[in-house]
């Protein structure tokens, strides 16, 4: 899988620009392109950078096979094709580590090299960062809402089959406990889980009608009493009784996937306790989002299964990051189109925090400039790190687990308004010290 | 690419159910699973089925490699693994052709075979249909809004890198003219296009500052005067003047990517005409959705470039289809969970239309039942066709172009309320003749 070329996961105009620049001699100018978001989507108060590792991997696999070149020969001249044949990225990439928080204007990734080698990476880099960041940024809101309870990602069926794998990874990065997606388990080591669907209960229908007990017996025979039984196929009260009947009081959990989950959780908890199954957990699922997860906090729910709203970004399915040319041969460049201005120059970011660890401001300065002065009583942390140097990985790439740790640390460092679920302003301001 | 196994693009519970069913002997029961949507998303009036060809391809590639089996051995017993080793789908699939309209309850796809072979296909089939259908159903609204003008898909950067390819395909199915995505061009033959970005203009910055004319000259040298010049990097009026200056009055088109597109299109049209470039077209892009496309109908816009709103489904990023067990050994089965009821039995659909071709009703009946009586003055069309028989393709699969034709015909057959962009009820009712 990782051996595949990523060179055609891109937009045609990148190659037509390349062809024109090779012809007029500007292709070799040293450029910096910057990935940033003009705003956080949908009134969010912070974002979580995700997809960095996948983007760096896509850059490494940005090589041209014969079939790629054949396809591009439809519209590219021989010289450009010859240039692509030899291509591999040899530039530098700096940026935020995966799992880092970001805010409007944060220079999330900076790609420096010749115009030719940087311009053609635009689409695939943005696709990955925009998707994974949207999912991770949504997932952390659910993690916060769940307040320490388990969260299982189970949205694969509601999104593109490959986006599903990346979503499972991004959700885990953000603090989810597990995924249903098996490819994410294989490829990224995300813990996977799963027991049964309504179909399994319905399958156990005989000439005499439904036989929920047979389904439960079969599941327990295969998976043991620690499993989770799905109790809402027919009647929940009946389902819970049958479940404890068949499994005994050591049944691992029951899952409720429909109805008013708060009311049902209370009823089921009472019923389980009355049946002596006081250690049996309650799992709920079914159209949950961060708001309904938060609303269920006061109910006897032990863990949540989340699908659609996670993989669709709960109203913000893309992070809206852009990839803009900011520097040519050491000179800052910027476009002036209305409402789409860019700020010129290669940048880096520093985050100021109080002694308590609470962040107060992000300062964005030119990469080549002196570090900004640190106000009294604050500490400064360099957010930008080197990721690729001369096309090769710089320093040890953080693991998914390390990124997950960074997310957890980041959430703890936010001022309290930052964790509020309602729409609002970014949790901390970004200040440009670049002019 | 097409050789890859799809067997792990799935949820763990499908394999744990399989393991339990193999153990208790129910795995061989003959089952039908049905893909349908309980409702259309977001007040839409119709949906367009898309992804069918990709789903059938994914079923054909649902085979287990050694690496797949090794990964599954984490939680599956030897017998189940042995069963998977030999697996290939040998059942039957019926359903709607790709490009067909659908409504709430339409039996979009029915998968019949043993429980074992059908249950494990759930996630990958749903992922594909839910994603592609969401995009195609959004794209047709844009096609209708554009009222015959060209529509270019350019949203790759705003969605997962593989979802981008499927989105480009779905948009073309729905009637878009072209895509920026090169992998969609290679893999599916979607016409691709693209010229330049703001970066190319900014690249042409020298010691004396910006040099828009140099950028335009370079692009024309490489792509000819029929190209599209992006005129809004600095000042649009200046950009248009420079464009015609450099290219002459035969310039193909100018693109405006920011600002009030309606006002700017009018100004630019006037300016182009005054400069003698009356055949130069105007392309607009920048955060367009079906509503803004419709709003620009009265302006001198020749074609639209659409990105984010298309690939995110313009508010409806997933079609919300489900895969439900409806029949076991010839007996209808149905779950009774509140608000998630299912209707038992294998089904097919017939659509009634007036002589004029305008559809009036979709009738869903049991697959084995007599066809429903056709009311006087109406004609009936069988919507359900056979797609796979014994695991093999049944009849010639429709091409992407044929699906595109089916979409166009379908849109023409809708009652006029069906094409209204505002939220509302489905354009025609679905009636169940199954009870």
Automatic annotation (TrEMBL), chains A, B:
Residues 8-130 form the Nicotinate phosphoribosyltransferase N-terminal domain. One of its GO terms (molecular function) is nicotinate phosphoribosyltransferase activity. One of its GO terms (biological process) is NAD+ biosynthetic process via the salvage pathway. Transiently phosphorylated on a His residue during the reaction cycle. Phosphorylation strongly increases the affinity for substrates and increases the rate of nicotinate D-ribonucleotide production. Dephosphorylation regenerates the low-affinity form of the enzyme, leading to product release. Keywords: Glycosyltransferase, Ligase, Phosphoprotein, Pyridine nucleotide biosynthesis, Transferase. It catalyses: 5-phospho-alpha-D-ribose 1-diphosphate + nicotinate + ATP + H2O = nicotinate beta-D-ribonucleotide + ADP + phosphate + diphosphate. Pathway: Cofactor biosynthesis; NAD(+) biosynthesis; nicotinate D-ribonucleotide from nicotinate: step 1/1. Residues 151-343 form the Nicotinate/nicotinamide phosphoribosyltransferase domain. It holds the Pfam family NAPRTase_N. Its EC number is 6.3.4.21. It comes from the Bacteria. One of its GO terms (cellular component) is cytosol. Catalyzes the first step in the biosynthesis of NAD from nicotinic acid, the ATP-dependent synthesis of beta-nicotinate D-ribonucleotide from nicotinate and 5-phospho-D-ribose 1-phosphate. Belongs to the NAPRTase family. This is Nicotinate phosphoribosyltransferase. It comes from Hoyosella altamirensis.
């Amino acid at each position: 899988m990782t051996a595949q070329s990523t060179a055609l996961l891109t937009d045609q105009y990148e190659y037509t620009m390349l062809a024109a620049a090779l012809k007029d001699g500007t292709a070799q100018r040293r450029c910096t392109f910057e990935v940033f978001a003009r705003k956080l989507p949908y009134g969010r108060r912070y974002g979580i950078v995700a997809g960095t590792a996948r983007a760096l991997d896509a850059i490494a696999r940005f090589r041209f096979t014969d079939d790629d070149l054949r396809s591009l020969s439809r519209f590219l001249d021989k010289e450009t094709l010859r240039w692509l044949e030899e291509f591999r990225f040899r530039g530098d990439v700096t940026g935020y580590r995966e799992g880092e928080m970001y805010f409007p204007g944060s220079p999330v990734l900076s790609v420096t090299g010749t115009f030719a080698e940087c311009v053609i990476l635009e689409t695939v880099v943005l696709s990955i960062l925009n998707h994974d960041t949207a999912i991770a940024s949504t997932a952390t809101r659910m993690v916060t809402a769940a307040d320490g309870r388990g969260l299982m990602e189970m949205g694969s069926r509601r999104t593109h089959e490959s986006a599903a794998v990346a979503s499972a990874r991004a959700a885990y990065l953000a603090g989810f406990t597990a995924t249903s997606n098996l490819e994410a388990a294989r490829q990224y080591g995300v813990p996977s889980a799963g027991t049964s669907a309504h179909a399994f209960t319905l399958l156990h229908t005989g000439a005499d009608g439904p036989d929920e007990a047979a389904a439960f017996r079969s599941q327990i025979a295969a998976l043991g009493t620690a499993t989770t039984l799905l109790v809402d196929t027919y009647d929940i009260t009946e389902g819970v009784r049958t479940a404890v009947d068949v499994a005994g009081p050591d049944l691992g959990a029951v899952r409720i996937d429909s109805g008013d989950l708060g009311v049902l959780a209370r009823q089921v908890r009472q019923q389980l306790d009355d049946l002596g199954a006081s250690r049996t957990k309650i799992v709920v699922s079914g159209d949950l989002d961060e708001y309904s997860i938060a609303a269920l906090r006061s109910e006897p729910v032990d863990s949540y299964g989340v699908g659609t709203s996670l993989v669709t970004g709960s109203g913000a399915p893309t992070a809206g990051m852009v990839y803009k040319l900011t520097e040519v041969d050491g000179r800052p460049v910027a476009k002036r189109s209305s409402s789409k201005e860019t700020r010129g120059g290669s940048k880096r970011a520093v985050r100021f925090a109080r002694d308590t660890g609470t962040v107060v401001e992000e300062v964005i300065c030119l990469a080549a400039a002196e570090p900004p002065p640190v106000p009294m009583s604050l500490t400064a942390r360099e957010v930008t790190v080197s990721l690729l140097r001369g096309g090769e990985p710089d320093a040890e790439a953080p693991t998914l687990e390390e990124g997950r740790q960074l997310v957890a640390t980041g959430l703890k460092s936010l001022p309290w308004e930052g964790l509020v679920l309602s729409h609002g302003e970014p949790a901390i301001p970004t200040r440009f010290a670049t002019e």
